[in-house]
Amino acid sequence: MAQFRGGLKASNAVVILGEGMSEEGTFFGRLWAKQYGRQFGISAVAAGSSAILLVACMYQILILQDHADWNDYTGAAIVGAVLSLIVFLISFPEYLRFKGYVAEIEELKEIQSTAELRRRKADGDEAAEALGAGHLEQWKAFLDSRGVKR
After folding, report:
1. Is residue 74 within 8 Å of residue 61, measured between CB atoms?
2. pLDDT for 67-81, tens place per residue?
3. Are 9 and 18 contacting, i.e. CB atoms less than 8 angstroms apart?
């Protein structure tokens, strides 16, 4: 075994960092995983509210900045716009992902052919599992009503 500066030890001069943490995930990743079943609602509220705040801040920056009564709020509007843009850029893709799962389940529920439904059942299972909450139970009840085995 070779000894490197700072006390890092490695064999064959290779230092592997971060392997122990990959199983645990990040703090926010674990927090997000604990919200299973509520993720669609949380992402919808976060994306919608951050979009509204971003529009309000941009209105302040673009229109009200030169108004005598509102020009003191321009700095706060810039900070608000940056923060709301960050939240929007993080939450909107998650919202779209969950919205896609909902659309996929709705599309599968409209299929009249039992053979086609059996062929695409795995897609519905995946979507319902990702959405959590009552979607998995509703999907299973739908499959039972159509006579498709789980």
Report:
1. yes
2. 888 888 999 999 999
3. no
Confidence band for 33, pLDDT divided at 50, 70 and 90: confident
pLDDT at 112 over 80: yes
- Sign of the torsion angle spanned by Cα atoms 31, 35, 40, 46: negative
Q: What is the 3-state secondary structure (H, E, C) of the chain?
A: CEECHHHCEECCCCCCCCHHHHCCCCHHHHHHHHCCCCHHHHHHHHHHHHHHHHHHHHHHHHCHHHCCCCHHHHHHHHHHHHHHHHHHHHHHHHHHHHHHHHHHHHHHHCCCCHHHHHHCHHHHHHHHHHHCCCHHHHHHHHHHHHCCCC
Which two structure tokens, joined as six digits, stand for 116? 């086609």
Dihedral (Cα; 43, 45, 49, 52), 10-degree rounding = 90
The dihedral formed by the CA atoms of 106, 107, 113 and 116, expressed in degrees to the nearest 10:
-120
How sure is the predictor about 29, in pLDDT bands with cuts at 50, 70 and 90? confident
Domain boundaries, the chain: 2-146
CB 32 within 8 A of CB 66: no
